[in-house]
Design the sequence.
């Protein structure tokens, strides 16, 4: 599973950005390779419809889940079309590293359960 | 004298909203809560303000999103603006509740990690995409 988490800065210590399409960076976490990379949001300064090229990029990049503080109406429509799942983080104090930690712990737990089975 | 036929008004159509607001209301800063009743902003009025003044949609596009006619949208939006004006001018507190709405999509909250999420692909079991917990509550009900 590939996750894209909206961030202010390219570090895991960054807070999760409240705006999906207008954030500066995305942390892309892949549970298969268990690695995280940061990519810059090239479309954040578009006057309008910033979500359109961004969602297209995520679809081609194989992202399954996007995480942000909130999603705009247009972004949601595009993500629905691309079958990409949305996750809203309501607590503004949540950091990118917290989200990656939750995902990693769940992934490790599921892996060990599968091995024991 | 023949009795007048009973004419029932057409019931309001449900208005579509993106999701429930993250908060229940607002309290003015620097003023003690009075006994006056709070101003009640309906969920469709909150959505009208969000679409027009936050997402900067024009009224036609916002009306289409909420699945209502443009004049109805204008009326809802006008009511919302008047209520917010009253809150500002009278330093009243505001409660966001009620109205006749339905959610744009099904949203769920994880009981464990508190993430709110949707489920675009309907097949498969319903679990939290972050912590994979099955302790899930449907927010649309």
Sequence:
């Amino acid at each position: 599973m590939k996750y894209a988490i909206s961030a202010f800065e390219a570090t895991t210590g960054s807070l999760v950005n409240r705006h999906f399409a207008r954030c500066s960076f995305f942390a892309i976490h892949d549970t298969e390779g268990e690695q995280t990379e940061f990519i810059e949001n090239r479309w954040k300064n578009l006057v309008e419809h910033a979500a359109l090229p961004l969602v297209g990029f995520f679809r081609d990049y194989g992202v399954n889940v996007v995480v942000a503080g909130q999603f705009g109406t247009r972004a949601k429509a595009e993500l629905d079309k691309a079958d990409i799942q949305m996750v809203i983080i309501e607590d503004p104090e949540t950091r990118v590293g917290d989200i990656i930690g939750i995902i990693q712990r769940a992934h490790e737990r599921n892996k060990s359960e599968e091995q024991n089975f | 004298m023949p009795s007048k036929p009973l004419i029932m008004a057409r019931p309001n159509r449900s208005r579509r909203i993106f999701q429930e607001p993250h908060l229940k209301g607002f309290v003015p800063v620097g003023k003690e809560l009075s006994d006056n009743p709070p101003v009640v902003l309906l969920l469709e009025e909150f959505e009208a303000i969000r679409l027009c003044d936050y997402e900067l949609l024009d009224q036609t596009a916002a009306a289409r999103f909420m699945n209502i006619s443009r004049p109805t949208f204008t009326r809802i939006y006008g009511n919302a603006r008047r209520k917010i004006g009253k809150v500002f001018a009278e330093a009243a507190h505001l409660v966001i509740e009620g109205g006749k709405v339905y959610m744009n999509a099904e949203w769920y909250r994880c009981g464990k990690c508190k993430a709110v999420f949707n489920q675009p692909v309907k097949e498969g079991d319903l679990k939290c995409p972050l912590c994979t917990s099955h302790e899930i509550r449907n927010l649309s009900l």
